[in-house]
Specification:
There is one protein chain. By secondary structure, the protein is α/β, with parallel strands linked by helices. It folds into three domains: 228 residues, HUPs (Rossmann fold, 3-Layer(aba) Sandwich); 152 residues, no CATH class; 105 residues, Tyrosyl-Transfer RNA Synthetase. It contains 20 helices and twelve strands. Strands 1-2-12-6-3-4-5 form a seven-stranded mixed beta sheet, sandwiched between helices. It has a five-stranded antiparallel beta sheet with strand order 7-9-11-10-8. The radius of gyration is 27 Å and the shape is globular. The structure holds tryptophan and iron/sulfur cluster (SF4). The site of tryptophan has 15 residues, from strand 3, helix 9 and strand 6.
């Protein structure tokens, strides 16, 4: 059972209510899993998603299409809509384009063989690495042990297989980092710190944990939080986590925790009092309307004016808080114009605050709120804010810095004073592959998936006996065309076999829906390509053995253990 995380987390930065994606030749088989009627994002659940559109509406995942035009040479999984969603991916795209620091990280629970579904994530990590991101691949062994009850022997064996496949597909181990959760001390330290910002009540709300949940399972959650932020231990940087949408609750919690560790929160404000985002929008409306005929003036508020009061007032009366309250109560204010969903309650709250501030002039400013700063860090921040500023007990207002400049300054001071300065991590989400036998692709049902360790001939056979989107008879198929959108074999082409060749994927699709392609031949072609892929992968895995042996990853954990499953 999974519920939404705290909606306040990202305030309103996440898109809501997006339209569904137009599907043309973007035939990713998303409909094949239709049937279930609720969306639940459960990291330890069955990993099927009945309706990807609901993920945008209910969870605020953003549509990938919206950033796609900004991605330089997008991966074919992006072009084909297999990667369908993201959370705040833009900073990573910008960093890759500008050659700035950025990172990619994903993790794998070693519960079975790596299969072609995992290959998507391997490819995503490698693609980002090739574009300059610091790349991390981790083995979620603590999670596999505590949440799935695997023994350490099993975990060691599978861990090895995941790493070999990741290397075989092109992960550059000299440039990148591979680790196991269980033997990464720095990671455990970070998990411990993050744990002090997480509450059990949130675990209940987010993951449905209860009094029966084992403490080790909870520890594996804070460990994953640490995984997600680990690339930033050597400095804050945009980081993308490529995962399936079932991991979104983890991403949201990690974004929350990252924010909670920050020393300062930078916001915008119009006056000395605190207002939330909606109230600020309301006040902003009043300010914009009233300041059109009266330029802002200096005020003299605050406990301590640090830099004089002269702010270039060019005459005219300042807009005062009470004027703004009057304006909001007059007929001139139209809530609907704000474009965001502002309740009457927010308007009333804004009016009340404005009335309480009375004659204080309204002036836009950027505010640093003290969240976790030590006294020295807060003092150092006050020192460092240049230009006109006002200092209050738990915040500083600056009139000279933009929000971006303020963010940068706050982060710098935080890091100088022993903080992490975390940037909220980003994510990209891919569709789950349909199982070859229909339904979901599952590690525990061998015929439903193709393992990356499968014998090439077995791979060939599995494709040959896969379910298709074909019609009952060849005649009908010629007449009506096949249903490529519901065909697991077509998915194999789109997700893997066509590789970077969009033309090829499109031809298969067009020929199928146009009735020119019949399933027998189509599967034969796919089965051969699969066999070739598996043969090549097998060779590359053999070559990767040597690289793996050189790596600093202990594959004989030799741990004692008590398995538990909850
Ligand atoms: N929970 C993930 C899974 O079930 C594995 C994982 C652990 C992970 N840490 C991670 C994924 C960090 C992404 C990022 O597969
Ligand atoms: Fe699937 Fe190929 Fe048959 Fe079309 S022709 S339904 S893609 S197997």
């Amino acid at each position: 059972m999974t519920r939404d995380t705290d909606p306040r987390a990202d305030e309103r930065t996440d898109a809501d209510g997006l339209e569904s994606t137009e599907r043309t030749a973007r035939t990713d088989g998303g409909e094949a899993t239709a049937g279930a009627d609720s969306v639940a994002l459960d990291p330890w659940g069955s990993s099927t998603v009945s309706d990807y559109r609901k993920l945008f509406e209910e969870f605020g995942i953003e549509e990938f299409d919206e950033v796609l035009p900004e991605v330089p040479n997008p991966h074919y999984l992006m072009r084909r809509g297999v990667i369908f969603g993201h959370r705040d991916y833009r900073p990573v795209v910008d960093a890759m384009r500008e050659g700035d620091d950025c990172a990619v990280l994903s993790g794998f629970m070693p519960t079975g063989d790596p299969h072609i579904g995992h290959k998507l994530v391997f490819d995503e990590i490698i693609w980002h690495q090739e574009r300059g991101a610091d790349a991390y691949g981790l083995i979620a062994d603590l999670e596999a042990h505590s949440a799935r009850g695997l023994s350490w022997e099993e975990i060691d064996e599978h861990a090895r297989d995941y790493l070999l496949s990741l290397l075989a597909l092109g992960f550059d181990a000299e440039e990148g980092t591979l680790y196991r959760q269980s033997d990464n001390r720095e990671l455990q330290d970070l998990a411990f710190e993050l744990g002090s910002k997480a509450r059990f009540s949130e675990f209940e709300a987010i993951y449905g944990f209860d009094g029966e949940t084992s403490v080790s399972h909870m520890q594996s959650v804070v460990t994953q939080m640490a995984d997600i932020l680990y690339p930033q231990l050597d400095g804050p940087k945009p980081t993308v986590i490529p995962v399936g949408p079932d991991q979104d609750p983890h991403v949201r919690l990690a974004r929350d925790l990252a924010a909670r560790t920050r020393f300062f929160k930078v916001t915008e404000a119009y006056a000395s009092f605190e207002a939330d985002a909606l109230e600020r929008d309301v006040i902003g409306e009043a300010y914009a309307a009233l300041s059109a005929d009266a330029p802002a003036a200096s005020d003299g508020e605050g406990d301590e004016a640090e830099n004089g009061d002269e702010d270039g007032t060019t005459g005219g009366e300042p807009v005062r808080c009470e004027d703004a309250a009057d304006w909001l109560e007059s007929g001139e204010f139209d809530r609907a114009r704000l474009g965001v969903d502002v309740s009457q309650a927010a308007v009333e709250a804004a009016i009340e605050k404005l009335r309480a501030a009375g004659k204080e002039p309204l002036r836009p400013r950027v505010r640093f709120l003290d969240r976790n700063a030590t006294e020295e860090a807060f003092e150092a921040l006050i020192e460092a804010v240049e230009g006109e500023k006002r200092v209050f007990e738990a915040h500083v207002d600056t009139f000279a810095l933009s929000r971006e400049e303020a963010e940068e300054l706050a982060r710098g001071i935080e890091i100088e004073h022993g903080g992490y300065g975390f940037v909220p991590p980003s994510s990209v989400y891919h569709r789950f592959m349909t199982g070859l036998t229909g339904g979901k692709m599952s590690s525990s049902v061998p015929a439903s998936h193709i393992s990356l360790l499968d014998d090439p001939e077995d791979g060939y056979d599995k494709v040959k006996s896969a379910t298709t989107g074909g019609r009952e008879t060849a005649e009908l198929q010629r007449e009506l065309g096949g249903e490529a959108d519901k065909c697991p074999v077509y998915e194999l082409y789109a997700y893997l076999l066509a590789g970077d060749d969009d033309e090829f994927a499109k031809t298969v699709y067009d020929e199928c829906v146009g009735g020119e392609r019949l399933c027998g031949d189509c599967k034969e072609q796919a089965a051969r390509l699969m066999r070739e892929f598996l043969e090549e992968h097998r060779e590359k895995r053999a070559e990767a053995e040597e690289v793996l042996a050189e790596l600093d990853v202990d594959l004989h954990s030799n741990r004692r253990g008590v398995t538990s499953e909850d």
